[in-house]
Write a structure and sequence with these properties.
about 200 residues, about 55% helix, alpha/beta
Length: about 200
């Protein structure tokens, strides 16, 4: 399975071939902020969350550059998809069509066949497991933040604006996740007191 740094590099490579569109950049930023959920697949068949990106020079935008389904319901706009994905913890299957042979060959080893290969990543069912999940997400966002800072320090060239966007998104996510974690801590304390007085 690809590590977070490799997945980030894959998103940057795909982004270079996509149109400079705010909604697509927003989607890539969200995916960069949720790398543990992202899986590059050869086919999206059977995936509850499926995204297809066609980074091909032969594709005329707004043709079929972006297609997505959420529980088999088509979602026509990247922004609407991000809003929906923020409410779930399910794996995100991403299928990419590239006509650049170098980037295509680079991404090929990251691919798994389908959703069947990534099943088992269930949403956190209990309060404590949700807290563990939030802590893991915060750790992931910190990794992304540090990696973006490192790439910017080394000189990101044409990717600088995207990396700055990802950096800001990671900061926002860390703050939001911290608030969620505080809320869950409070809820756990209240439940503990309730159990003690029962």
């Amino acid at each position: 399975m690809a590590d977070l740094r490799t997945k980030m590099e894959a998103l940057l490579r795909v982004g270079r071939h996509l149109p400079q569109n705010p909604e697509l950049t927003f989607l890539l930023g969200f995916l960069a902020g949720n790398l543990r959920r992202v899986h590059f697949v050869r086919t999206v068949e059977g995936a509850p969350i499926a995204i297809s990106l066609s980074a091909s020079r032969r594709t005329l935008w707004p043709g079929s550059i972006f297609e997505a389904t959420l529980h088999h319901v088509p979602v026509p706009m990247p922004g609407a998809l991000v809003s929906a994905l923020a409410e779930t913890a399910e794996p995100i299957c991403v299928h990419v069509t590239l006509d650049d042979p170098v980037d295509g060959a680079w991404i090929e080893p990251l691919l798994v066949d389908s959703y069947a290969d990534v099943q088992g990543e269930d949403p956190h069912a209990t309060l404590q497991s949700r807290m563990v999940g939030l802590r893991n997400q915060i750790d992931q966002q910190l990794d992304i933040y540090r990696e973006c800072r490192r790439l910017l320090t080394e000189g990101a060239g044409e990717d600088e604006s995207r990396l700055q966007f990802f950096l800001g998104l990671a900061q926002t996510e860390i703050e939001g996740l911290g608030r969620q974690l505080s809320g869950l801590n409070g809820e756990l304390e209240r439940r503990g007191k309730g159990d003690g007085t029962a």
